[in-house]
Write a structure and sequence with these properties.
The chain is mainly beta. It has one domain. Helices cover 6% and strands 43% of the residues. The chain has two helices and eleven strands; from the N terminus they run ββββαβββββαββ. The protein has helices at 37-42, 145-148; strands at 2-4, 10-14, 19-27, 31-33, 58-67, 73-82, 93-104, 107-114, 126-127, 151-152, 159-166. It is elongated, with a radius of gyration of 21 Å. It starts with a strand and ends with a strand.
Amino acid sequence: MRPVRRWLGSQNGALTPKFELDAGYTIQAAYYMGISNEDLQLNTYYVNGAQFYEIPLHAANAGLGYTNRPGALVARIDSYYVGSNNGFNRPAYWYANANVAKTVGPLTLNLGINNLFNSAAGGYGLIGSGSPAPQNQYGGANASAFAQGAEEFYLPYRQTWLTATFRL
């Protein structure tokens, strides 16, 4: 039994002296090949040639940053896409984070926001609504998400923080 993994890289660059843009796209193909029938009977969640459970095939990110001069004012927004078959056991989703920092002399104020648009946010999980775990030919009895008790999870609601740093 040997796992196989493949992925792609990312790009970033300055648009102007004050603006930068970066983006990345990843294809992570991770799967087993050549598992014996005896091992498949012992673990019905191993499937030859199928993507590993909870490892999304596609993921992407894009970010835009602004700096008026080094250390004075920095603003940035980053967005992320996570494909299906993810660790939250839910369909594909996206979210964005933002950050603004201002330095005045030795004092730096930083305002950050996680999940800026409350994408895929919720405070609980939904049992029976998650993506069902794949099963090989020896374990097809509990193929539905409800029968498996598959729970769909959410991202946390928008979170905001403010920090102050004083340098001597």
